[in-house]
Amino acid sequence: MSEILIIGGGIMGMAIALELRSQGAEVTILSRNFKEAATHAAAGMLAPQAEGIAPGPMLDLCLQSRAFYGGWCDRIEEITGAKTGYWGCGILAPVYTLPQNNSDYWLDRDSIHQFQPGLSDEVGGGYWYPEDGQVDNRALAQALWLAMQKVGVNVREGVEVHQIQHHRAKINCVETNRGTHTAQHYILATGAWSQELLPIPVYPKKGQMLSLRVPQNILASFPLHRVLFGSHIYIVPRQDGRIIIGATSEDVGFTPKNTARGIQSLLNETIRLYPQLKDFAIEELWWGYRPTTPDELPILGTSPYENLTLATGHHRNGILLAPITGLLITKLIGEGKLEPLLPHFHYSRFSDRV
Ligand code: GLY
User: Fold this and answer.
1) Domain ranges, ordered by start, for the chain
2) Residue 290 confidence (pLDDT) above 70
3) Order of strands, edge to edge, in the sheet holding 106-108?
4) Can you name the CATH fold of 2-83+136-202+294-350?
5) pLDDT of residue 354
6) Contact 290 CB / ligand 1 (< 6 Å)
7) Fewest CB atoms within 10 Å of the CB: 41, 45, 191, 339?
8) What pLDDT sits at residue 101?
């Protein structure tokens, strides 16, 4: 396989790097700031069903990736000895207002309160998705970073690509703060920042988050062992006693910082759904930028340049879609194999904007 340069050190770039390297490619990955990626801001839900993704290619992509997740994390843990926090804990989606039609996943009022103690009395029922789950995205990011070093990916942190140089339909090189880099093939995995390098419609959608800590004296008996996915909130209990809470969804560009309003809305919805959390200590507040496209679907596959592949715009589902993205992009570049799902995510659907 050829020599490949990946621009972007978030989960997508790392997943692709690992997969390509395991197929024998010489891979370099350029990361501007490892901690800046949406990867670190996420809650790590693996939630194709709880997110209510409509049947179609996107749901198929998400379900395939969810099916790979456990094995993918096992592989990363074997390579590194590091934990990823993968947990097939299921996701419970409680509702306050009863729907007109229920599905096979429906739990009525009595069943849901019996199944999950501690929910607000306002909860009138909900959906239980046992195959959804979570991964500790920060632990996974660290493990992937380590895995890349172990398998021999050339990892370059603190390298910012300023410009992609091309001649006609071919990329010649990328200009960075550390000089010029060349490769046979390039992959753009720069998430919310993609427009800085290429005119593709990927925009930041800010999400504010916070975490609580279960008090040590009740940790053993605290009964929340699954993700709660409410209508404006999700509550993700980690196995170490942290509880991740997210997220706002704001069109404010790259405006940094948490806001009083953002955190207030998260706390109100949290306490409404699971009242006991009101007394837990706040551990951390943070924010991040989802890479969002006009139809909220990722941009995957070939580009206007013959030696540039796109893997960006995963919106709310980047953590979930990392394994399948790594696999499909590797098959495309390594074997020239266009898996049937890929064309649905081609950039040309936005040809009036590119
Ligand atoms: N995946 C959940 C979110 O983007 O907030």
Assistant:
1) 2-83+136-202+294-350, 91-129+204-292
2) yes
3) 106-108, 125-129, 91-95, 227-229, 234-237, 242-246, 203-213, 281-292
4) FAD/NAD(P)-binding domain (3.50.50)
5) 60
6) yes
7) 339
8) 82
Ligand 1 within 6 A of 247 CB? yes
Q: What is the mean pLDDT of residues 290-301?
A: 98
> Roughly what angle, to the nearest 10 degrees, separates helices 57-80 and 318-335?
90
Q: Give whole-number Cα distances, 114 to 88, 125, 259, 270, 276, in Å.
A: 20, 11, 36, 20, 16
Query: 66-81: per-residue pLDDT in tens?
Result: 999 999 999 999 999 9
Which atom of ligand 1 is found nearest the CA of 47?
A: 1
**Cut 0.85: pTM above it:** yes
SS3 label, residue 139: helix
- Atom 1 in ligand 1: residue holding the nearest Cα: 316
Helix H or strand E encompassing 70: helix 57-80
Q: Which atom of ligand 1 is nearest to the CA of 318?
A: 1
Please answer whether residues 232 and 268 qualify as being in contact, where contact means their C-beta atoms are separated by less than 8 angstroms: no
User: Does the CA dihedral 273-275-276-279 come out positive or negative?
Assistant: positive
The pLDDT of residue 2 is above 80: no
Q: Per-residue pLDDT averaged across 55-76, rounded?
A: 98
Among protein residues, the one with the nearest Cα to ligand 1's atom 4 is 316
Assigned CATH for 91-129+204-292? 3.30.9.10
CB 265 within 8 A of CB 230: no
pLDDT tens track for 139-195:
999 999 999 999 999 999 999 999 999 999 999 999 999 999 999 999 999 999 999
pLDDT at position 346 over 80: yes
Residue 233 CB–ligand 1 contact under 6 Å: no
Q: Whose CA is nearest to atom 3 of ligand 1?
A: 316
What is residue 32's DSSP assignment? S
Which is the closest atom of ligand 1 to the Cα of 247?
5
**Is the Cβ–Cβ distance between 83 and 239 less than 8 Å?**
no
Query: Distance between CA 159 and CA 5 in Å, rounded?
Result: 12
For residue 98, give every residue at least 6 positions away whose Cβ sits within 8 Å of its Cβ, in sequence order, or none.
124, 125
